[in-house]
Protein 1
Amino acid sequence: MSDARTALDEQDAPAPVAVPASTVTAVPDGPAGPATAVDVRGVSKVFTTKAGTVTALDDVHLRIAAGEFVSLIGPSGCGKSTLLRLVADLDEPSSGEIEVFGRSPRVAREAQDYGIAFQQAGLLPWRTVAANVELPLELHGVGRRERAARAADLLALVGLTDFARHFPHQLSGGMQQRVAIARSLAERPSLLLMDEPFGALDEMTRERMQTELVRLCAETGAAVVFVTHSIPEAVFLSQRVVVMSPRPGRITQVVPVDLARTAERTDDLREDAAFFAAVTAVREALHGGTPATARGVDVR
Ligand SMILES: Nc1ncnc2c1ncn2[C@@H]1O[C@H](COP(=O)(O)OP(=O)(O)OP(=O)(O)O)[C@@H](O)[C@H]1O
């Protein structure tokens, strides 16, 4: 069994120094507490295909606190999306256990504990922006008036009030992604699962979206599990950056990010020495201390 375990109290660790997995405090066994959003215990995932078996995840342990922002980073194919999909109940682990707010992913999904946003905004082209945001509420039988009020609030939150009656194709990529994020927040989830939601955006839009996401999460208090290939993005957003190894995916290091509280992170932070130090710490964690470039990881 690997020692790649993490503890809730690591988020308070003082410096952006990579923590070798072997020194990370072990998570005690037993049920997660009320302050735990996600508890992944000894999870492995093996896919069986015609060409043979693929071990995507091997004995992954990860505990994420309520309200905590955690990014997953690692080389292409290391199992980041697979881990997110298991938490989202879009697939099942081959072994090990996952709890979301103390319940199974299935029960958590049914209770609408989390929202999901992926790289493609995934909006329905025939519905207006407001109707897209309302969709999850509609599916769960929320009344028309309440839906409209909630969508109006969310569109104000992401700065798209004036576009409520537009259709997705009339919006830029960044605006569409903001609609997708508004939709993921519709049911006031305590957890957001985000798989490269800004991957298709240009750099300027992407940075603006990161700043907005930090603000939104501070306002809603949601915990976030965020998959990205970008080290600066992971550092800017997160309280901890979880570094994974090439397949079979394991957690090799956990880098606590000791910048301003995430709620207070602004663009100025990107020029800060502490920001660069954290970026370097993650980069070194990814490369095991060598300057070699990991496949599929953007180190800019
Ligand atoms: N449904 C599936 N059937 C078979 N193999 C799969 C399936 N889903 C994922 N895999 C394999 O599991 C491994 C992990 O894939 P995953 O998409 O989780 O990686 P990732 O870290 O998110 O990659 P990327 O950074 O390129 O998006 C890969 O080798 C992939 O081919």
Protein 2
Amino acid sequence: MHSSLILWLYSYLKPYKTRIGIALFALLVSAGSWLMLGQGIKYVIDEGFIAADSQTLETMLSGVLAIALIGCVATYFRFYNMLWLGERVSANIRNALYTKMLALDMHFYSTNRTGEVISRFTSDTTVLQSVIGSGLSMAIRATVTFVGALILMFVTSIKLTLLVMLAIPCILLPIKLLGKKVRYHSQLAQDKVADMSAHIDQSLHGIHTIQAYSKEEADQSALHEKVEEAMRAAQDRIHFRALLIICVMGISIFAIVFVAWLGATSVIVGNMSPGSLSAFIFYAMMAGGAVATISEVFGEIQKAKGASQRIRELLDTPTPIHSEESEVTSLALDTIADTTPILTLDALSFAYPGTDKLVLNDISLRLLSKQKIALVGPSGAGKSTLFDILLRFYDATDGSCYLAAHHYQSLTLGQIRQQFALVPQEPVIFATDIATNIAYGDQNATSSQIEDAAKLANAHEFIVKLKEGYATQVGERGVKLSGGQKQRIAIARAILANRPILLLDEATSALDANSEASVQAGLANLMANRTSIVIAHRLATVQHADTIIVMDEGKVVAQGSHQTLLIESELYRELAKLQFIE
Ligand SMILES: Nc1ncnc2c1ncn2[C@@H]1O[C@H](COP(=O)(O)OP(=O)(O)OP(=O)(O)O)[C@@H](O)[C@H]1O
């Protein structure tokens, strides 16, 4: 029933066989000790207590204490090792999830919510951790105890045991029926929690806008609704789980009381010793307790099944864009002659996965080394999409891409992406200090290299004016920096990365004239002696590009210099007119 879950968990548990061995051994010893305690009780009553022999009573009691002590020590080892395994396995699953997360492609991220992914890391792995650490351990211990207690019950009295066993089908029935309900509601509750995480994630990212629009109350009530939905789902799960536990407990207690009554009658007529009856009841209660534990853990295991399903779903998500082995050992794009194409697109078309609208339509381009190339065109023309294809975030639906003379498919993802430095429209700044943010371009850079890059990017001046200079913490997503400062840090990062091709999505946000000039000077340094492809939103900045490519509705409609395009391309003329450049 739970074989797929167990098998999957086993693949994570396999490396820790010694610890599992110790835990299982400790488990057997502790279960054995508690079972032996029943025999001890029998002898204490029959040989010491009833025979009124204080010497035997003392010996027996010491024996009982020794057994209890062994049971305690073994329990410690079982507990420690099982909890350790739970923590270790969930930590390893988190690592595996993170590796997968880094490999998942843009299609995944455009169709999934980040909050849901985060909830796999946090809540789902925590469920597994508790199931391995305590749930599984309790289930195994209860099973061993149940089997042991049953055997000893048989040894003590076959007749009474057979009578007790009549209760078993009555116990299994609620487990079967209510277990199904528990599983269904567990899955639902976890989904609701993931939904809630997604909402929180979105609000955290948009907190600035929420507060600016005074939408706190509306957002609070939207979350409140989700919290309540999660609560309702959890409530249903708890209801069925509690029902399951009391059914099992009630039936077990009823059976034990009934059997105790029958046993007491046997003791009265002298067919059974009082010690045996006490031991029998002790075992029957242990067996009953074990069944109750199993039914309780059953709910936990159902919950874990849901969690593991979601984790496995993520781990098994296919990644169509992956790195193949490559026979190309060195690309050496730096050494390409200036008149040779560094990038070639050959009849390239692209539609986003799951759609059939061609966002890029039959594009053929030869981009020469060391040239400054500008991409212009109306919003939605496909300029950003072209960048994504160049970085191989997506594979072209039709046609081909070449770096120098190498087809993209003959290169690894790393080989392709290492040729590009990307400066996006919204600079991505990490919540750490300035030096680390710049060094993202080259993690082995020395501090003087970092400073040189910052100087070229026109960032050094403002950085040294900050209280802690390069060690200044910039806050989450760089909130402590201005727009222009963030852009210059992103430029310094790209300068330090020193990649042969620069992909620049020019910022549209208005900077003041000073800041703009500063950023432009930094960009000029970045583009010097490099192939650069710039998505230009303002034509003023690209008039001196070597080639301007005009895109419209996924097609290249014209290309050439500013002057030729003013004459040859109506669309370019229109764009220029709109921006008062002619
Ligand atoms: N992940 C996606 N899934 C489906 N369609 C998308 C996706 N991303 C973009 N598109 C669509 O692709 C088209 C081209 O978008 P793209 O962002 O490349 O245009 P753009 O020229 O960069 O526009 P802008 O100048 O406004 O940034 C648009 O119609 C857009 O709706």
Protein 3
Amino acid sequence: MSAGADTIVSLRGVVTRFGRNVVHDGLDLEVERGEIVALVGGSGSGKTTLLRHIIGLTQPQGGEVRLFGERLDEGSVNARIARQRRYGVLFQQGALFSALTVGENIAFPLKELGIARHEELDALVALKLAMVEMEPENALMMPAELSGGMIKRAALARALALEPELLLLDEPTAGLDPDRSASFVRLILALRQELGLTVVLVTHDLDTLAAMATRVAVLADRRIVSYAPLQETLHVKHPFIERFFHGEHGRRALARANGES
Ligand SMILES: Nc1ncnc2c1ncn2[C@@H]1O[C@H](COP(=O)(O)OP(=O)(O)OP(=O)(O)O)[C@@H](O)[C@H]1O
């Protein structure tokens, strides 16, 4: 079976071990263009590691990882650089370079890949800040001066700098208040509509998940045990799914998503 032309991410038979700790064991996942896939799983189940595999920051011990149809371990240096321009990432840790201003952080990928001319950078930075509801003046601030939520939004602005086809987001709404989370959801949905953006996000935030995921991938027992739209996922019998979606917190979030008070 081969992946289609519109398969953005393809993971086949992925095996990941850290010493004796087997994190993934024969894991499969395919993400099609335009999807918003929410990756959920218990703490330590290997969600962040999976995002890292997708962009080649780490390599699994077994299986195959393809991004935009290309194997990550193949291709020239130029092919790898070309690939880097096509995705943006927002990881939980190391979101911003602490020695650079917010503006320099956002401009960093544009400069590094030689995409924008020097005189265009300020305008581009202001545009990206506006997308995440930050002010142009925020460009001059240092990361240490920002609140946790502002760091998230500035890091998202940087991830969007290259107008990527694929966004990988690790807990993008953790630490945001409900209004900010809702604007984040609106922004992602608009970008998907306008640019055909594909998103893979790790999240524990059921409101965000219910508002935008086209499919939910459940990572448990070292593999993806369910990969379906939310409504179907809710009917899958699995201990993790029961806890995550049908506990008190889950029931309330799903009721909100269904417009019940
Ligand atoms: N570089 C590493 N060296 C050793 N073990 C690692 C390394 N990176 C991850 N692990 C281990 O792999 C497992 C999966 O980690 P990962 O961060 O991917 O989980 P996660 O599902 O994202 O967790 P959380 O929801 O708590 O952030 C954990 O047991 C972790 O300790």
Protein 4
Amino acid sequence: MIEFENISKHYPDGTKAVSDFNLQIPAHSSTVFVGSSGCGKTTLLRMINRMVDPSAGTVRIDGEDISTKNAVELRRSIGYVMQNSGLLPHFSVADNIATVPRLMGESRKTSRRRALELMDTVGLSVTMADRYPHQLSGGQQQRVGVARGLASDPNILLMDEPFGAVDPIVRAELQNELLRLQKELDKTIVFVTHDIDEAFLLGDQVVILAAGAQKLQVGSPSEIIENPANDFVASFIGAQRGSRALRVKQTAHGPVLVDAQGRTQGRLVEGGLNQ
Ligand SMILES: Nc1ncnc2c1ncn2[C@@H]1O[C@H](COP(=O)(O)OP(=O)(O)OP(=O)(O)O)[C@@H](O)[C@H]1O
């Protein structure tokens, strides 16, 4: 479990990025921070691996105050995936993935074997191992970024808008791959996005944030959709419009669900999905 306790981050120029923030992030599940630009999502994420140190408060991982840990070792033990993949342009795909294992003292051979395994895990053909990042598509680069984040087999994977820069179709593919991976690997994932649909798709726990990392609501997607904390959250999650504003329409063959534009989204059936 990751805990934020009374966390604040004030920058020297007077910006109060985070003020008295408290949150528990359960292990083996995914938590998504969602909110508009500049609300403090990245700052919160980077406090988990000490890329940013808080001005006040304590971050704990499994009960241990991380300020007492060696920052470099901590950072290497936690996976980090960023927007635009952050790959080293003059390193091959395999060498990019193997960076952290190499830094941690693994042999070249073992690191490469691990890199090839991980390419397979994230759905990349191993024939691409010796290509350079510019020889890959944006979506493939992001997969390499995810493989690199997983290279040290971390318990925690931090993902900062990892799919923000790819087109919607590739983005949907990458989101589904991440859901598959999460079932397989069972990591603690902390994911940042400004896209509420992505947050609801990927998050077991969703944290809706406003400026200054103010928590507007924390809950599962169902809890938030069924019971938005206030009008601002209702409007932010699009409860009154788009694909989430569904109503029942009676047809000759039984009730169907239609969205705010009148498009049929599905059939209303009795009982659970397995019946
Ligand atoms: N080094 C810094 N010095 C001063 N202010 C900073 C610094 N880093 C971030 N900030 C400010 O802190 C606030 C939170 O920034 P942060 O990057 O965490 O937001 P974000 O929600 O991740 O935004 P985005 O979605 O645009 O990436 C912003 O007002 C930002 O300008």
